[in-house]
Amino acid sequence: MTKVKLSAIKTTAPEDLDKDEIKAKVKKLAKKIGDLQNKLYAEKKHSLLVVLQGMDASGKDGVSKNVFANCNPSGIDAYSFKKPTDEEFSHDFLWRCHKLAPSKGHTMIFIRSHYEDILIQKVHKWIDDERVSKRMAAINSFEDLLQFDNNTTVLKFYMHISPERQLEKLQERLDLPEKQWKHNPGDWEERKLWSEYMDAYEHAINESHIPWYIVPADQRWYRNYFVAKKVLEVLEEMDPKLPVLEKKED
Description:
Elements: H1 19-43, E1 47-54, H2 60-67, E2 76-80, H3 86-89, H4 95-98, E3 107-111, H5 116-123, H6 129-150, E4 152-160, H7 163-175, H8 185-191, H9 194-207, E5 212-216, H10 220-238
Parallel strand pairs: 1-3, 1-4, 2-3, 4-5
Helix pairs in contact: 1-10, 2-10, 5-9
């Protein structure tokens, strides 16, 4: 299998696309996603785990808001992974993730995910290569378990933003009052380790059993379309049905 090299993949939309047309398509896709997600929730036979990973300001929150805008809130949740708590640190690294895995009928969005424990920890050398390798094997087993033992489809998206576009978006968080709540000085420090993060992401992507989708993320409108299109394809393949009452014989 050909290894993914992120530097060889474009971060922008194809040049022949019309922005307004694509934005209109996203709204239609989101409505269809909402309809199928509601059926998934009612049927309670399958579940969906959507993993959104990427550098700071790559659009993880934006995707979750736009793609899943029409979903039934009773059947969908999102969790934004932060630094582990003391209790989480006292367990194995997958403990906090496993208890958040979606039950049948539910859709769960991981904004960041279990991959943080082989990304930031690898980049900062808090764990050695042997532990990275063992954790990657555990992640593959975890995802295989979800898919094959609990009818959970795992969809993984890497939000592929360029360093130039990330700089623009981080600067917006300083300059625009309505975005200043997003500012985190640590994002600027992590940016200095861009090359190390790309190496870590490539390792995670290339060593995964379940494939990743590389999302060109420089333009919000195309980023949302790319993810929405793939989510809809997966839900259509699931083909959930609304349960109906069995007719009683006279």
